[in-house]
Input
Amino acid sequence: MMSFRDFATFRISSFVSLLICLVAAHALPAAEDHALPATEDAVFRDKVLPVLAKHCLDCHGAEEPEANLNLTTREALLVGARSGYIITPGKASASLVSQLLVKGSKPHMPPEGQLSDEEIEVVTSWIDSLENVPLPPRPSLAKGLDHWAFQSPKHEPLPTVKSAALTENAIDSFVLARLEDSQLSLSAPAQREVLLRRAAIDLIGLPPSPEEVQAFAADSSPDAYERKLDQYLASPAYGERWGRHWLDLARYADSGGFHDDLDRPHAWRYRDYVIRSLNADKSYAEFIREQLAGDELAPANPQALAATAFCRNGPTNDDNMGNNAFDREKYRLDLLDDVISTTSAVYLGLTVGCARCHDHKFDPIPQTDYYQLLAVFNNITRKDVPFGESGEPELAGKWTKGQAGIMAITDVGRQPRETFVLYRGDLNNKGPKVEANVPRLFQSAANFKPAALEKSSGQRLALANWIAAEENPLSWRVMANRLWQHHFSRGIVSTPSNFGLTGAPPSHPELLDWLATELSARGSWKKLHRLMMTSATYRQSSQGSKSAESVDPENLLLWRMNKRRLEAEAIRDSVLQVAGTLNHRVGGPGVKPRIPTELLEASQRNKWPVVKTEGPEHWRRSVYIYVKRQMAFPLLELFDIPSTAHTCDCRQDSTIPTQALVLMNDQFTADQAARFAKRVQVEVGPDARESARRALWLALGREPTPSRCSEAEEFLRAQAEFHQSAKKPADESATLALVDLCHVLLNSNEFLYVD
Output
């Protein structure tokens, strides 16, 4: 009957799964005796098997069957193919094997030829007779159920370490235990001024002022460092810094992408919601609930509605989605696929999107799981919610173009849409109906209880409650790992959105569990920041050690701090901060700073304004720059801002010649270097020695050594002579020399990297 050679064309080599949920939800059961009564066994032997032998067994016999589909026995047929069940007992119409036999089906079995109606009737009648027959466990899905990430985190007791005097908190005990096992130890503490700059860049994305550094260096009180951390955590700049990390995950943009790249004039409300939430230290559980189901949780709260744009941030192509009902439905399902894939990756560290067309190839996630999550979101519709006269959002109101509104989602009603498994992800190939639920390997412990609300099905709120529950084995680990990643350059799990079987194992599993339980108990990002940053592990120097490098060259055991280049936004923001031009205005629509005119001419449809001279309105923090999908802001793009086409959990960290060339030659850097020089002149006057010293202080965040001051002073002298040789007056030459020094400092590795 079947040869699966043609399946390669469709990028499938096996059948999809059917009705996996019939197996016990909390775990796959042990194999059962599936023997039928003799009369029913005889039906398979005497009627079905001859049909299969005639058409199928050349490819699907007992020895090396294609797609691991063995059709020689009833038990093997029930087990199915490599990636799924092919039979739904008692429902021939919902069984993939029956659907492939129908005339005109694509793909079709057998690839060449056609079973007669009588032969098809034999097979379908037999499947219909199996109503009470349980499906056997599938080995491919049973594999991995004991994976570490699927088990509940444990609040492990602190390990005993020899060098307990080096520890500052519990984190150090876990790190030192691993180091001591490898005959290593922590590095010496970083210098105080180095530590302060590290902390400031980490928490607010801006360098400390010379006065801050001097005051901190002079403060001998035992809690001086902790008080500075508290100051940074309380700053509005904290949310702007860490909000950008979350926006990477949420694939935030101010336009839709694709060919037309239509503007989203109210997308910024989601960006501001994120920043405001982090500054308020909103509990992570509430943060999850609002983004997945804010309209169900608090439909009259503008912030909760704006949060649901998490489900709308992905690329859209509304003007080219098709002109018929089939194409529009396919487009809608593609948008929901983005929601499902992003939600599972961001909150759970699972690649559920891989199960849209077939069982997951590696994780115990059958195709049915994908469609159960689709059922959760299948009832949503995109809605721009207007503000009424009272300033409150009006869900029932009609939004008109140009009107203030909230980019949100809502349910189409209380009654959920019917959701069906789509074999091979094909809208033309419907399988069994499924109900909303969480992935089956978690169902035994899940509290997934949708409750119909006044205008909504309540299914998204039920999912959000399950994700946010303290007992969820994944969500708290995933978030704790993300925070660790941004402080230490690498997550404890180095694949932060993949905690599945193909993801990296944790370098410190007990520490990750301890952090996850701390985060779930406290609910506070800021408390976990403080815990990580007060550890001796975080306070280490970044200097290398040949002996330690020979044992752990990648620093996986954290015997020193990792040196890091600033991210794109932190580079631009630091330039503005040092030049004294940073506009600290918070929130509102995105700004559009200057882009080289040659780039604008090459991309006419993007409608970015021509800016000849930048001013304070353009010098806001980079998180507020308008994100145009088809035209990334050039300076930020050069320093590895991520694509907004999908969620980004870890940015690239490239080092290419054009980065240095642009920083040296870009008009923005040149203009800010001139303003930096003017600031120095205002603060210390015309004296070359004092100008050199002040410029070094501002740019590098530490007291310059006498040799560095002498080197900078000599540079000023040489550059002043150079400009005078071009017939410039002495005063102007001195100013131009200072601009040159400031320009060099903004291009230095000491400015672009944090120790």
